[in-house]
Amino acid sequence: MWRSLLARTVVGLVLSFQGQAQAGQETPAPDEAPLPEFVLPTVEVIGREVPASPVDSAPRRDPTGAITVIDARERVGEARDTAELLGGSASLVVQDSGGYGQSKNLVVRGASSNGVLVFLDGIPLNGAGGVADLSLIPVALLERMEILRGAAGARYGAGGLGGAVNLVTRAPSSRLLTSGEVTYGSFDTVMAHVAASGALLDGQALVLLHGGRSQGDFSYRVDELPALDDNPLTQEVRTRNDARGGGALLKYRHGLDGGGRVDVLAELSLEDRALSGTVQNPTVSRRQEQTRLSLGARWGRPFGDTGEGSARGFFRRDWLDVTGGSTGVDAGAQHYTVGGVEVEGRAVLGRNALAITLAGSSESVTQAVGGQAASWWRASVMAMDELSLFSERLKLVPSLRVERVGHYTLLSPKLGASVDLGHGFGVRANAGQSHRAPSFLELYIRQGLLLPNPELKPERALSVDAAALWHDDVWNVTAGGFAAVYENLIAYELYPPMLAKPYNFAAARVWGAEVEVEARPRAWLIATSSYAWTRTQNRYGDPRYFGKELPYRPRHKWVGRLRVGPDWLNGRTEVLVQSAQLINRVGEARLSLPSRTWVSVGASSTFLRKPDLTVSFDVKNLLDARTADYTGMPLPGRAAYVTLAVALDPSPPEASHVASPP
After folding, report:
1. What CATH number should be reported for the domain holding residue 618?
2. Which residues of the chain, if any, have pLDDT below 70?
3. Which residues neighbour 162 within 8 Å (Cβ) at sequence distance 6 or greater?
4. Which positions make up the signal peptide (predicted)?
5. Does residue 653 belong to any structural domain of this protein?
6. Half-sphere exposure of 262 toward its Cβ, with a 13 Å CA cutoff?
């Protein structure tokens, strides 16, 4: 039923776009009018330039934060998923449980996946367990990815112990633009999407449909008797790794009098995948079906020359059903609902740029097993000041959020500073506190053998970081360090005979260094590199574990990428080197996942114009490195993919060297 509904929607919108485009041949449609951004004047400087980034972007929400922005449009035609693109940033580690459609989570600066906030155009994606699954967000939806590393509680709310990621979807266009892309490759993997954008009802609209499937049945070698030396390896085939899914994205943008704008978004995602379990306890028939509906609307407008107001509303509903489990372990159907509003005002008063945010939301979860249900309200007040001194060379940015989450009251302060040293050099530093309230599942919902604990306390993070920056027309370099103390960490402990229950008993220290480099000496040459050195230390009082490293936190991670060539023929290569990581808190080397080196190569050619036709070829894991996920299940070896992309009447930016469909 949903397929026919989406098909009728697409046909109607495309016909509307065609009519608007034909009318535009007689009267040219005006260019797309972006929302004006408020200017931050000071008493020393007159006529300051308008900031290039949108008002709700990460650089504007946290002006001194450790931020990386990834332009997804530069990766058009590549067989990459959202988690892979994010994994190229410093201090972000992807926890991957398989191929296409299998769960993919992020660990940022040593914080667990449920301590990283993920948003889709400002709509929170973290579920009832506090974790956001990136496999449900295809790259086809995205325009850019904004990553904030470090304390995110003051600007983004509870849950941002290690950072926050905002996934920004494609913007609609006033011109008629259509595109499509299909990828086929190893393990019988197929991915495709079609998109159309154009003028509609005195505004701009975008519709995008996507879908894909994969069998995931790759072969691997395993030592069935690891306790014996020189034991021969046997050939096996990975099963319970298949997945299929699809969805749609609808966006509408309308300009208002006085420079205001309204943006509306609707996103639907459906997925069905097999669950393999762990190496020690594999499943035979367990599957997961998940549906997500996200709705969002944002209004914003300037007030005079120095003020601005905005309001945002959002709603999200997740349907999750796990079947095929054994009696007493099956999780059953689960519904998670969240909705809320956020109102923000900004004003410039002399050297100060003040911002105040009021936010409120409601969350609820129900689970079929045992008729379990829970709900609570969230409310928060945030205030931020951006103080500019010495002709804006020095900026001090204090912020504070007071938040009520259920019966928890949380205080998240942060102080940031940046100094412009001239000639492209600068420094920045931040210190802050963040919290993560326990999730619904940890507090109230029993999941098979996992018991809830309503007495849990919120986790807390105290974080500091500092970095030096340099940039010019070619280079962009950032190098710095960070440190954090995580307290009251929540972890499950065995509750005999077979049950487990969460407790606040762990504490940890994390510190490290980060380097990110980008070079663009020519329009046809781009080189990027990121490196992170991360040390962790368990501070739990048990002498067996005190001082040991935390599991699933590799010390070293380096990613290098090179792209060479014009549109008509270009090549690329990417190398990921990641050190070994422990799998439990005992700290023994034999109980660890080995280091990995993944080399990927690819080539693309846009061989026809108007319409643009681009063919791409990618080989992932060229050296066929055999690795495992955090449960011990093998990850795919060498894989090859071919992609064909078509763009009708495209209008890419003049400086772009890649075809950019809408």
Report:
1. 2.40.170.20
2. 1-55, 223-229, 325-331, 541, 587, 589-590, 650-662
3. 107, 108, 109, 110, 111, 112, 115, 116, 149, 150, 152, 461, 484
4. 1-23
5. no
6. 10
Contact partners, residue 425, CB within 8 Å, separation at least 6: 468, 469, 470
With helix as H, strand as E and coil as C, how does 106-145 read? EEECCECHHHEEEEECCEECCCCCCCCCHHHCCHHHEEEE
Distance between CA atoms of residues 100 and 271, nearest Å: 11
Residue 22: what pLDDT? Answer: 41
- Kindly write down the DSSP assignment for every residue of 165-197, as one continuous string: EEEEEPPPBSS-EEEEEEEEEGGGEEEEEEEEE
State the amino acid at position 122 in one-letter form. G
Nearest to 407 by CA among 454, 367, 450, 447: 454
Q: How many domains does the chain have?
A: 1
The reported pLDDT for the residue numbered 657 is 35
Tell me, yes or no, whether 22 lies in a domain.
Answer: yes
Task: State the chain's maximal CA–CA distance in angstroms.
Answer: 80
- Per the DSSP assignment, residues forming a β-bridge with 277 are 282
CB within 8 Å of 606: residues ≥ 6 apart: 567, 568, 612, 613, 614, 658, 659
Tell me the pLDDT tens digit for each residue of 624-654. 998 888 777 889 999 999 999 999 975 554 4
Structural domain harbouring 387: 2-648
What b/e string do you get for 554-585 counting C-beta neighbours within 10 Å, with b at 16 or more? bbebbbbbebeeebeebebbbbbbbbebbbeb
Task: Note the pLDDT of residue 576.
Answer: 96
pLDDT of 626 reads: 85
Could you give the CA distance from residue 239 to residue 219 in angstroms, rounded to a whole number? 9
Give the separation between CA 317 and CA 319, rounded to whole angstroms.
7
Q: How far apart are CA 491 and CA 116, in angstroms?
A: 16
Alpha-carbon Rg of the chain, whole angstroms?
25
According to the 3-state scheme, what is the secondary structure of 569-612? CEEEEEEEEECCEECCCCCCCCCEECCEEEEEEEEEEEEECCCE
> What is the CB neighbour count within 10 angstroms for residue 353?
23
What's the pLDDT score for residue 236?
83
Can you say whether residue 323 is alpha, beta or left, with left for phi > 0 and alpha for psi between -120 and 50 degrees? beta
Instruction: Tell whether 655 is covered by a domain.
Output: no
In order of 154, 327, 503, the CA distances from 441 in angstroms are: 25, 20, 13
pLDDT, residue 491, reads: 84
Task: Please tell me the distance from the alpha carbon of residue 97 to that of residue 99, in angstroms, as a whole number.
Answer: 7
Residue 658, in any domain of the structure: no
CA distance 417 to 398: 8
Dihedral angle over CA of 441, 446, 451, 456, nearest 10: 30
H or E element: which one contains 442? Answer: helix 440-443
Q: Quote the DSSP letter at residue 656.
A: -
Output b/e per residue, 157-192; b: 16+ Cβ within 10 A.
bbbbbbbbbbbbbbbbbbbbbbbbbebebbbebebb
For the beta carbon of residue 493, count every other beta carbon within 10 angstroms: 12
Neighbours of 62 (CB within 10 A): 26
Query: Which position has the token pair 């112990």?
Result: 161
Length of the chain measured in residues = 662
How far apart CA 222 and CA 633 sit, in angstroms, is 10
pLDDT at 55: 65
